[in-house]
Amino acid sequence: AVFVARGGGGGGLTEQFNELKPRLMQGAMIGAAGLAVYGVSVFVFDITFYLMNMSPSTVGFYGFAAGFGAAGLCFGAAGFLFNALSIRPEIVFRRGLSLIKGSQVAQQKLGGRGVTPGKLRAYKIDAAGWRLDDANSLKWQNPRVQMIFDVKGQVHRGLCTVEAVKEQARLNVTFVGLDVMNDAEDRVLISGSEERMYVKDQLRDLVELKRANKPVG
């Protein structure tokens, strides 16, 4: 009976606390808001007092530093954006040639080590931008390079196809293929998927089209 009586008294105190809780929370919020306003006011007053008492030379120094820093940030952002949205064919060429030289299958098909590039080099650049896909929906396309060039081995020559895209400011080689100019006309997939084999045929057609439309000198 005593335990039940104390429990009932505790329940009454709990009910009183629950009734006062919204008022206590409201008072705490008002107090916190007052402290925040006071802190901001003191900070603004101190900054204003400091600025009003600075010498002209100090004002000029901080103004120059702020302008120089803002210009540096703008140039840095512009450089990063340019690097992310542009792709250089010579870098794609070096990356593709390195992958071909590092492939044992390519070396065997071309006739041993010592693979060197030839004089043929053609490429197509697709700039970054918004494009309509097959479903007529707007889609972002990363910058892309599709390239074709020839290489020479100790026995055979080969025609290399490379495709690379720029994703998040990093170069990603999506396809590297090699057509060996031997009797069997072997095709070697160095990197990527066989589904990208059509890139080679597209670039060959592009090279043939340019040769056909070349003006006669």
UniProtKB/TrEMBL annotation:
Keywords: Membrane, Transmembrane, Transmembrane helix. It comes from the Eukaryota. The chain crosses the membrane at residues 28-52, 64-85. This is Uncharacterized protein.
